[in-house]
Amino acid sequence: MRIESIQNVLSCVNTAGKVALEEQRNIRYSEREYKRDDSVVTRADRKVEKFLLEQIVALYPEANILAEETLRAYDATKTYTFAIDPIDGTDVYSQGMPGWCISIGLLDEQFVPIAGLVFSPGLELLVFADVGRRVTVNGVELPLLNSPGSLSGRTNIMVSSRIHRRVNLSGYVGKIRSIGSAALHLCFPLIYQGVSGAVEDAGVHIWDIAGAHAINLAQGFDFELLGGGRVDYLAMVDGTPVGDTILAGGRSCVAEMKKVLKRV
After folding, report:
1. How high is the pLDDT of residue 148?
2. Which domains, ranges and CATH numbers included, belong to the chain?
3. Least buried of 205, 237, 240, 246, by fewest C-beta within 10 Å?
C-alpha cells in the first residue's frame, strides 16, 4: 500500500471539529479529569478520538494508528503510521477558550512526517500539508515567508505554558506568546509574520507534534531539538515523550534560539 494523499481525511476532521465544538459549549469545568501525568482529559477527547479512529482505520487499514487516549500496539511490519491527537490543548478547551485543535500526522517507514493537518475550529483555521505538496491554510497555498534572521525586542515566539520549568528564557529579549495547543504553536511561525519561532516542552508526545512537524518540513522550516539533532519518533511509539525541548522556525531563527535559550 502506498499513500499518496490524505485528502480524504479532511471531511472526517471537519465532522470531528463540529462534534468537539458542540461538546465544548456544554462542558463544565468540574467535569475535567486528570491523567497520571496531571494532564487534563475530557469526555470530548474520547468521543472525538473514537470517531477519528473508526474513520481512519476504515480508510487506511494497513497503517498503524497511534492516538493519545487509546492504547494500540505498534506493528513494525506496517509501512505507515498515523499519529492522532483528538484535542490538542485540552486544558484550554475545557475552560472554553479557542486555543485547541485536532492534529493528525502521517509518518513513513523511516518515521519521517510526510503529511499533516492541524484544524482549529475555534480559530476557524485549517493548516494542511498533503503528501508531497505545499502547505495550505484554509485551502489557500501558503507563500514562503522570510523568517526574521535575528531575534529582537520586536519579535515573538510561541512557547508552551510549562516551558519556564525547563528553559531559561532570560537571554531572549523579545515577546513570548502561548495559547494552549503545541501543534498550533509550532505552525504559527509559518502563518504569521510577527511570529519568529516556537519553543515546545520536552513532555510532548508523537500525537502532539507529528502533524505540525510535517507542515514545517513541507514549508522548508527547521524542526530541531534544543540539544541538537532530530526528533526520534520510533522511540515515541509507546507513548514516551520527546525528552528534549523542540525549536521550530526558519533556519536562522532556530540557530539563534539555540544560542540564547538555556536549560534550567
Report:
1. 57
2. 9-141 (3.30.540.10), 156-263 (3.40.190.80)
3. 240
